Amino acid sequence: MRLHVSHVTRYQYAEPVSLCHSLARLKPRETASQRCLSTQIRVDPWPAVSRGYADFFGNRVNYFSIQQSHSSLEVTAQSEVEVTAPDLPDPTATSPWEEVASALRNVRRVDIIGARLFTLASGQVPPSPDATAFASPSFTPGRPILEAAVDLMGRIHREFDYDPNFTTIATPIDEVLAHRRGVCQDFAHLAIAGLRGHGLAARYVSGYLETLPPPGQPKLVGADASHAWFSVLVPGLGWIDLDPTNDQMPQEQYITTAVGRDYQDVAPLRGVFYGGGVHELTVAVDVDRVTA
């Protein structure tokens, strides 16, 4: 399946901004099931400095600096991606989770050593005894790791309400857990905290999800949004993606842009600016199928 993504971010400032430095992680990654056919980022006003590079996690990053006075900033990313539905593994045929946790602590193999970073606490996923306790019923003794992770995904989906007005990007995991509500970012962080609390490697994934309108109704422009989910390391299979917001393993409707320890590693756009005063942020995302 081919998908076209348009992601437009606009800042409107109350006062002029004299200088800004920004990092954009808006270009899709290359994966075993995803191929980026074309991608470009347009910045208005035109930046004085612009360059691209790959970060520590292999994400595609664009740095730009605007060194002229401006009252608004618009960043537009356009990409076309070919996505193939990955083969879904049998969760019951994976290794017991305790064996995986032990291997992550003790085995000296390149892939295992590289994954240990994702067993550690990070800025937005600090140690959380409450999150570990919440995940514990899914991780019964000897249970296959992927079966346990799928069960945790389902429990978050069933027991938490999707509420875009309750949290911000800075809301702590324990607050989300206490009130049983949040958004995709919160659900991914909670699952990661629960997995890491059991000594397992889990990472944060950001990207897009194609959303289809109800039958007979047109698709609304700008109705799609950035999405987030998590992945867990399963020996022999690699990183397996799980989406607690929708209680499913991502298929060909999902586009991956970046992976990291938590949201701070993969924020679509972040930076610093001088001046500006109060500012207004608007984001519009559209994901459409490309037909031949």
From TrEMBL:
<protein>
    <submittedName>
        <fullName>Transglutaminase-like enzyme, predicted cysteine protease</fullName>
    </submittedName>
</protein>
<dbReference type="Pfam" id="PF08379">
    <property type="entry name" value="Bact_transglu_N"/>
</dbReference>
<dbReference type="InterPro" id="IPR013589">
    <property type="entry name" value="Bac_transglu_N"/>
</dbReference>
<dbReference type="GO" id="GO:0008233">
    <property type="term" value="F:peptidase activity"/>
</dbReference>
<keyword id="KW-0378">Hydrolase</keyword>
<dbReference type="InterPro" id="IPR002931">
    <property type="entry name" value="Transglutaminase-like"/>
</dbReference>
<dbReference type="GO" id="GO:0006508">
    <property type="term" value="P:proteolysis"/>
</dbReference>
<dbReference type="InterPro" id="IPR038765">
    <property type="entry name" value="Papain-like_cys_pep_sf"/>
</dbReference>
<keyword id="KW-0645">Protease</keyword>
<feature type="domain" description="Transglutaminase-like">
    <location>
        <begin position="176"/>
        <end position="246"/>
    </location>
</feature>
<dbReference type="Pfam" id="PF01841">
    <property type="entry name" value="Transglut_core"/>
</dbReference>
